[in-house]
Write a structure and sequence with these properties.
single chain, mainly alpha, 2 strands, two-stranded antiparallel ribbon
């Protein structure tokens, strides 16, 4: 389910990502360790703040890393058994 980094993303892929997080938002953990040395202390705040960026700028290469970051968070949650 992992999405490789891209400078821009397809609208359908972004919609699926946003729906995935919205359906699980109330159950998101407080924090996660995304990788060694990178902890997200408040996952809900981070996801909520990224929704606007992801939905408005998915076609803007300037925001490609931020969009991909949300995919990484989803992949990390799935790897930890979060459904």
């Amino acid at each position: 389910m992992s999405i490789p980094y891209q400078k821009t993303y397809d609208r359908a892929v972004i919609q699926e990502l946003v729906v995935w997080f919205r359906e699980r938002f109330d159950r998101l953990p407080q924090s996660i360790q995304l990788r060694p040395g990178m902890v997200i202390p408040d996952v809900k705040v981070m996801v909520r703040n990224y929704f606007d960026v992801v939905q408005m700028h998915y076609e803007n290469p300037t925001y490609g890393a931020q969009v991909h970051h949300l995919f990484e968070v989803r992949d990390c949650l799935l790897a930890q058994g979060f459904e």
